[in-house]
Amino acid sequence: MTGSxxxxxxxxEPPSADDGTRVLVDRLWPxxxxxxxxxxxxxxxxxxxxxxxxRWYHASSDDFEEFARRYESELAAPQAAVALDGxxxxxxxxxxxxxxxxxxxxxSHTAVLRRLLxx
Length: 119
Known about the structure:
The protein is an alpha/beta fold. It has helices at 35-38, 51-59, 64-75, 78-93, 109-118, and strands at 6-10, 21-24, 96-100. It has a three-stranded parallel beta sheet with strand order 1-3-2. The longest helix has 16 residues, at 78-93. The chain is globular and about 35 Å long. The mean pLDDT is 92.
């Protein structure tokens, strides 16, 4: 089953042996974290929300559903769709852990990505 094992974790949490493929899904590298400590296997920047969308959401973070709708529209763009397919391919090989610096991953782009990967 495609995308059957997708986790979301904060990138600041220590890596776990059972994380599988660790995919950073933030546009910017996490502040104060070394590449060695992060143990990131992939960083598909085309999969991340646009700067404009991130700024809009930070200004009106109480509207997650609208953010999710706008983000899904961005993911339909050719480069983002290719990046999403790349992560979907990784899920076929085993567990994928989506990494983010977001303080509330359940109300961030990672929740949208996880839902799409599990669909």
